[in-house]
Amino acid sequence: MKTLKNILNVAMSNIVGFGTSFIVGFILPGILTVAQYGSYRQYTLYLSFTYLFHLGFADGIYIKYGGKELNDLDQNVIRDEHNFANFFQFIMFIGMFLISLITKDPVLILFSIVTFFSNVTTYQSNFLQAVGQFNTFTIASMFRSISYILLLLAGIFIFKSEDYIFYIILNVISYILMYLYYEYIFVGKLGFNPSFTVKDKLTIFRVGFLILLANMSLTFVGNIGSWIANWGFPIEQFAQYSFQNSVLNVIILIVNAVALVFYNLISKTDNPKVANVIKQLTLLLGIFGGLAFFVFKWIIEFFLPAYTPSIEMLSITFVSIPYIMISKIVISNLYKAKRSEKKYIRDSILYALAAFVFVYVVFLLTQSLSGIAWATTLCYFLWYMYVSRREFTHLKGDTSEWMLIISHVLVFYLTANFLNIYIGFIVYAIYLLAILGLKRVELQGIFQQILKMEE
Question: Measured at the alpha carbon of residue 430, what is the angle toward residues 428 and 435, in degrees to the nearest 5?
Answer without folding.
Answer: 95
